[in-house]
Amino acid sequence: MALHLYFTVRFFDDRYHGKDWPPSSARLFQALVAGAKTGARAREWNADQESALEWLGSLGPPDILARRKSDGRRYTIYVPNNSLKDGQSTKTSKQVAPTILVNHSPGEPDVVYRWHVPDADAAGVHLAALDYLAARLFALGWGVDFAAGLVSLDEDLHAPDGLELFTPSARGSLSLRVPNSGLLAHLCECHKAFTGRICEEGVNPYTRPTRFGEVRYRPAHSWEPRRWIAFEMQTLDGRPFAGRWDQAQTIAAWLRHAAAEALLHEELDESWVNSFVLGHTAPDNLGHRLSFLPLPSVGHQHSDGGIRRVLIVEPPSATGRDVEGLDLLRVKLSGSALMDQDRKTARSILVRIGDWSNVMPFYIRTSRVWTTVTPIILHGHNAARGRISLLKTDRLLRQAFDAAGFPEPLLQELAFQSAPYWPGCEAATAIRVPRHLAHWPHVHVRLEFKEPVEGPVFVGIGRHYGLGVFAAPQEQ
User: Fold this and answer.
1) Full residue range of the structural domain in which residue 125 is found
2) Which one of 71, 149, 179, 329 has the lowest number of neighbouring Cβ atoms within 10 Å?
3) What is the pLDDT of residues 155-192, one digit of tens each?
């Protein structure tokens, strides 16, 4: 089991005055330095504390659990301006917009920072110094945001009730500062500049620290839209191509191998292509791969369920080279042939279309209600005493949605059946699946989210190759 370092913060009041919520790990880093080096405590500063902070900053961005908040009432205060005009001190207005901590209770955790610890021995070396620093924390945020800190090292600390989890995410909506290498020395330089900011020429206002990293975060209990690229399939002589509804995973395999070949021609790392494109991922990171989704034609009473269009969808964890891979495929795959399994016969040609909003709106719109076009493949058996168990099926479905990035708090109502929800689609058991999935239950599902979710939506253990794909009805 993974080892984690937990830093727990308890505020003395239910008001927080910093601009960021949750407070960033860089803000915590600054607060620890201030607590240890303010007043007489500065005489106790030593190399162990310095080394512990440098090690903490090297752990990367932590997960943050924070109490839910509401916006407090704004008010104005007047403070001395950072300038001297004709020897006279002037004042300026300052807007204060406190954050209210919902259900704050003295003594209960308000913020918990959770770092993954790769080296247990190094953590043991620095734990005593970090505990010393935590004990000297007196504020987090403004100087009036009094707080107490506690450090612990644990494999799996139970998350306190009432705290919301924020996780690093390349496309998260929240940007938070994180410590950079050398931040401790930079803070000391800024403090020295601050103490000498007033001179005969006036006041130097440029003494704030600036050398931070920046990481995007998102609430873990929220859906993160994903980047995708889309193609239409044509026959070799330029006519529309339509695969059968039950061939979804077969067409996904054609598309997956075409993508891998296109990227290998760019001389990209073969091991990365095998993992990110072909799906041979590490056991602890199964979802970090491209998803290949054939899209049956649905949405009309005369729809035939034929597969004429395909999507390639990026995982939310994609960064750097992963993002570049999807951008390359956007260009490289246009005009490429999809070959069958024996790699001898070209079955169709991929063609990009500029505006996809009119040709596949059911898959990419934003909606609260979604229903499967191809069935979900469950990851466990849902029968008890020879009969389908509603409780087992519901539990397995909720686990499947969570694994696909739709956590429990997002789900409003679930229903499942064997019959299709869309004209042109077939019963759940009629879909062709790989041999290793054949013995698992197949179900069509209707889901209502608590808030609108932007497509594409795909769930289940076959979700990366065309199974468990959802579409949203026209009107809700």
Assistant:
1) 3-66+107-219
2) 71
3) 776 667 778 889 887 767 789 999 988 888 888 888 88
